Amino acid sequence: MKHTISVLLQNKPGALSRVTGLFSGRGFNIESLCVAETQDSKTSCLTLTTRGNDLIIEQITKQLHKLIDVIKVTDISEGEFVEREMVLIRVKAEASTRAEVLRIIDIFRGKVVDVSPTTYAVELTGPETKINAIIDMLSPIGIKEIVRTGTIAMARAPKK
Amino acid sequence: MKKMTGAQAIIKCLQEEGVETIFGFPGGAVIDLYDELLDSDVKHILVRHEQGAVHAADGYAKATGKTGVALLTSGPGATNGVTGIATAYLDSIPMVVLTGQVPRALIGNDAFQEVDIVGITRPCTKHNYLVNDPDELVATLREAFYIASSGRPGPVLVDLPKDVVASMINYPKKKPIQMQTYQPHIKPHPGQIEKACKSIVKAKRPVLYVGGGVILSDSHKELTELAEKLSIPVTMTLMGLGGFPGTHELSMGMLGMHGSYTSNMAVAKCDLLIAVGARFDDRVTGKIDAFAPHADIIHIDVDPSSISKNVAVDIPIVADCKYALSAMNKWFEDYGKLDRTSSREKHAKWLAQVDEWQTKHPLTYHEEGDIIKPQYVVEKLSELTGGDAIISTEVGQNQMWAAQFYKFNKPRRLLTSGGLGTMGYGLPAAIGAKLAFPDATVIDIAGDGSIQMNIQELATAQQWGAPVKVAILNNNYLGMVRQWQELFYDRRYSATIMEVTPDFVELAKAYNAVGLRAKTKSEVVPVIKEALATDKLVIMDFAISREEGVFPMVPAGKATTEMLLV
Asked: Do A68 and B147 touch (CB under 8 A)?
């Protein structure tokens, strides 16, 4: 099962390398990884998505927690959460398909951010499923390049 | 606050941490620190190879319980230490390793003797640091000592750029260390203790499975109290030997691949397994599905990631073993209806079963006339030292025979590379222990293969007055691999025959040490007596039965009840 794990870590040299080294060294897999500073410049938030059974996920969170630079580890997929990913897609857009491409982009509420005589570059934000869906739609027309950020996520505030 | 050089601050910090002895080897990147050492009270032991320095610090730490310290130069000095660091990491040994580094301006430039040792040792240290800011130097060192020795101990490396060590700094006052991101869980949860104790009361066939955590946390007394009060038989891992007296009537000896028949059968048949400071290593469990298949499992460990890593645990207790065992003893005092007599009655049938296994298949070996059996040598070493020597081992058959036949009655008497299995560990570790306890008898039980991996440290032993005794069980083979080849590879002895071996008696003489040799069984006791009688460095060369194997043996991947017996 897919898990989204949020790791708050100290913004120190090598901290990221400790996290990624842990995954490669112990044979855990990382599907996506996203990291940047938080509101506190001394800490970074790292969101990673991984797959594994409950025992593996338990080990992953325990091992992450054991790293000295790690402040907090949360498997946010355990509760309600919002997740977003951004993608840039360069898709073929020749005279015969330009209108169709624009319609698809519009349906997904994407944005055209770069244009050439034969291509559009599309920006789209959403959960991973939505990103996968537009890729499926645009593939038959001809995708030339895809750059994805990987998922970031945040637990939903408790409802009172 | 007083201005001083980084080197002076490092020495002062070591003294504040109570460090008396460090092990190292100099070089360009640490020359300022070595200059400062000359004027300090910190005793520096010059080794002959950096791996030896780290193993010696390991042996020192294991024997004393204090944090071991090694000092290495940059580049090859640091990389030579990596095997020692990984060894200490796998055995959870408290250790601080200081490495020199090229000046900050040269880092990343492929400078002379530059290596990214922080990057290299990231997966084999508990934590590591590169000190970039001279003002952070002292705080970093203090944190390193704190991390190395607290919680589940382990090695911490501090990489020191040459210009940081040479710069002038203010020496900050010592304050209690508070780390936001590192707070070991020491005290057990009372609810879990109660659950565990209640399940012990219910159990009909309980077993205590004791690991190195009991020794690291100095909780052998609490453990013995619990075992005796509740009449629970005890089995130990390699690292746990000495955590419970080996000659105690409740001791079943070691478990696992080369464990006793009794231990492995007891674990297979028990209905409650109480793991204390042990980590369910593959050499202990064998085939995981067949490990303690009928048992509920209680697991006490200070490291949460050890719990349910290999084997699912029913009652986890995250705590220092000493606190957890004390809390359990207290619970039984307050609420438990069991005392020594009633628990003995309650477990009479189970203890009788354990005795029956013990009688049926005790640890043993076949005598063969006047041929020297390695087990006999270890038995005699055990007898003639009253089981009270500090024993280090190399890795392989020598290590297993030492573990099986030396009766460790006290903790911190066995120094061995259990997790990583590092050949060449024994001699430098013995030297480290001997320097900590000059009056103790320290014996390295070695093989003719592994002793050669760090034999250069004989010079260290001589230079610093550490007259250890080396007992080589010499079969002219890399015996453990040979044993596997004999059993599982149709006796195809690929690269395990030591066709050229030095004359160890002559070698001893070359180091101005005493060399003794026994070729027959009747010569064994006189040789050991002579070695123990002298206060000199001694090598004993025992020409043992060449193809002797270590038994019982559980073939890799098999259930621990599928033992090959003698």
From this structure: yes
- From the CA of B511, how many Å to the nearest CA of chain A? 42
Domain boundaries, chain A: 2-78, 83-155
C-alpha neighbours within 13 Å on the C-beta side of residue B205: 18
The yes or no reply on domain B3-170 and CATH 3.60.20.30 is no
Residue to mutate among B125, B181, B318, with most A CBs inside 10 A, is B181
Q: Inform me whether the pLDDT recorded for B1 exceeds 60.
A: no
The verdict on domain A83-155 having CATH code 3.90.1150.10 is: no
> Looking at beta carbons, which residues of chain B come within 8 Å of A66?
303-305
Residue type, B185: H
Alpha carbons B373 and B253: distance in angstroms, whole number: 20
User: Are B3-170 and B374-543 in the same CATH fold?
Assistant: yes
The CB-side HSE value for B78 (13 A sphere, CA atoms) comes to: 27
Average pLDDT, stretch B242-267? 97
Say what the pTM is: 0.96
Give the Cα separation of A38 and A46 in Å (integer). Answer: 9
Residue B112 is among the residues annotated as catalytic for this protein: yes
How many angstroms separate the CA atoms of B137 and B135, rounded?
6
Contact A85, A52 (CB under 8 A): no
Closest-CA distance of chain B to residue A7, Å: 12
- In chain B, where are the structural domains located? 3-170, 190-360, 374-543
Nearest-neighbour CA in chain A from B362: distance (Å): 38
Contacts of B130 in chain A (CB under 8 A): 13-14
> Which residue, chain included where needed, has tokens 């005699």?
B380
Provide CATH code, domain A2-78: 3.30.70.260
CATH class, range B190-360: alpha beta
**pLDDT tens, position by position, A53-110:** 999 999 999 999 999 999 999 999 999 999 999 999 999 999 999 999 999 999 999 9
Cβ contact B175:B138 at 8 Å: no
Q: What is the ipTM of this complex?
A: 0.91
Q: How far is B69 from chain A (nearest CA, A)?
A: 20
CATH topology match: A2-78 vs A83-155: yes
Across the interface, which of A17, A63, A70 has its CB nearest the CB of B181?
A70
d(CA B537, CA B125): 33
Q: Which amino acid is at B533?
A: A
B265, B400, B423, B480: which one is catalytic? Answer: B480
Chain A residues with CB under 8 Å of B312 CB are: 55
Which residue in B4, B16, B113, B198 is the catalytic one? Answer: B113
Residue B426 in this model has a pLDDT that exceeds 80: yes
CB pairs under 8 A between A and B: 38
Return d(Cα B239, Cα B241) in angstroms, integer: 6
Most distant pair of Cα atoms in chain A: their distance: 57
Active site residue B462: no
Of B244, B303, B297, residue with least CA distance to B274: B297
Residue among B122, B303, B312 whose CB faces A21 most closely: B122
- Mutation target among A16, A62, A65, A71 for the B interface, most CBs of B within 10 A: A62
Regarding the domain delimited by B374-543, which CATH topology (the fold level of the hierarchy) does it fall under? Answer: Rossmann fold (3.40.50)
B197-241 confidence digits (pLDDT tens):
999 999 999 999 999 999 999 999 999 999 999 999 999 999 999
> Where residue A158 falls among pLDDT bands split at 50, 70, 90?
confident
Contacts of A18 in chain B (CB under 8 A): 122
